[in-house]
Amino acid sequence: MSAAQTPVRWSDGHGSGVRLTRRGRAVLIALALLLAAIAVLFTAPASQAADPVGSPPTVVVHPGDTLWSIASRYAPRSDPFAVIDDIRRLNGLSDYTIQPGQRLALPRRR
Question: Is residue 110 included in any domain, yes or no?
Answer without folding.
Answer: no
